[in-house]
């Protein structure tokens, strides 16, 4: 299962469709609070979350920290059209996290997802 979190519905839909087209099962949420509720209600394994860095409400780093409190092995891809140089140099908070700057193609996204999931095995 992949959990997609982005406050922009169009982006969230494009990511979800790209992943589903390639056979992935996806949950999607419009913010960190909704994503945590979905994750806590989902009994299966969530292998990866793809989350926008800047969203209203719960910041991405806090969302990921709380998610990893419940699911410590979840991998993370942070996405944003506005990464700062500090974000890029620090790699953003959390272990096992990747950065994918927007815009990206469906192929770039799914290739990165596959790399991260393959590294998990």
Give the secondary structure arrangement, pairings included.
Layout: E1 2-5, H1 9-21, E2 26-29, H2 32-41, E3 48-52, H3 60-70, E4 75-80, H4 85-90, E5 97-101, H5 106-120
Parallel strand pairs: 1-2, 1-3, 3-4, 4-5
Helix pairs in contact: 1-5, 2-3
Q: What would your notes on this structure say?
A:
This protein is an alpha/beta fold and 121 residues long. The protein has a single domain (2-120), classed as Rossmann fold (3-Layer(aba) Sandwich). It has five helices and five strands; from the N terminus they run E-H-E-H-E-H-E-H-E-H. It has helices spanning 9-21, 32-41, 60-70, 85-90, 106-120; strands at 2-5, 26-29, 48-52, 75-80, 97-101. Strands 2-1-3-4-5 form a five-stranded parallel beta sheet, with helices on both faces. Helix 3 (60-70) links the parallel strand 3 (48-52) and strand 4 (75-80). Helix 1 (9-21) crosses helix 5 (106-120) and helix 2 runs parallel beside helix 3.
| CATH superfamily placement | Response regulator
- Report the span from N to C terminus: 15 Å
Helix content: 40-55%
> pLDDT average, as an integer?
89
In spatial order, strands of the major sheet run: 2-1-3-4-5
Tell how many strands the DSSP assignment holds.
5
Rounded Rg: 13 Å
Q: CATH class, please? A: Alpha Beta
Question: Which class do the helix and strand fractions yield?
Answer: alpha/beta
Main sheet characteristics:
5 strands, parallel
Beta-strand proportion: 15-25%
Catalogue the unreliable spans.
Answer: 88-92
Number of helices in the DSSP assignment: 5
> H/E order of the elements?
EHEHEHEHEH
Tally of discrete structural domains: 1
* CATH fold group: Rossmann fold
Level-2 CATH architecture: 3-Layer(aba) Sandwich
Protein name: Sensory box histidine kinase/response regulator
InterPro entries: Bact_response_regulator, CheY-like_superfamily, Sig_transdc_resp-reg_receiver
Keywords: Kinase, Phosphoprotein, Transferase
GO molecular function: kinase activity
């Amino acid at each position: 299962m992949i959990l997609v979190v982005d406050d922009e519905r169009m982006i969230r839909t494009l990511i979800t469709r790209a992943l589903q087209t390639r056979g992935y099962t996806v949950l999607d949420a419009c913010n960190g609070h909704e994503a945590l509720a979905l994750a806590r209600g989902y009994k299966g394994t969530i292998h990866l979350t793809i989350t926008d860095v800047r969203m209203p409400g719960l910041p991405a780093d806090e969302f990921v920290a709380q998610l990893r409190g419940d699911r410590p092995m979840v991998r993370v891809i942070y996405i944003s059209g506005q990464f700062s140089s500090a974000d890029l140099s620090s790699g953003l908070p959390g272990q096992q996290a990747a950065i994918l700057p927007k815009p990206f193609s469906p192929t770039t996204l799914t290739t990165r997802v596959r790399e991260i999931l393959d590294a998990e095995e």
